[in-house]
């Protein structure tokens, strides 16, 4: 379950005015990649991200 506000895993100017408040729900979803910084999604599934080029 995700609730607002959306917190990105990467720097985003939209987050500049977001401050944590008591009672907020946080979902931590880290992305770990050894050799790639480029990510893609698959057609029909924009929820999961994969390393471009199938890198680790």
Brief overview, please?
It is built from no helices and two strands.
How are the SSEs ordered, and which strands pair?
Elements: E1 39-42, E2 45-51
Antiparallel strand pairs: 1-2
How much is the radius of gyration in Å?
14 Å
Query: What is the percent of helical residues?
Result: under 10%
Q: Runs with pLDDT <50, length 5+?
A: none
Mean pLDDT: 79
Task: Please explain how this structure is put together.
- The chain has a two-stranded antiparallel sheet.
- The protein is elongated, with a radius of gyration of 14 Å.
- 0% of the residues are buried.
- It has one domain (13-54).
- The protein is an all-beta fold.
- It is built from no helices and two strands.
- A hairpin with a 2-residue loop joins strand 1 (39-42) and strand 2.
Give short descriptive properties of this protein.
56 residues, mainly beta, two-stranded antiparallel ribbon, 20% strand, elongated
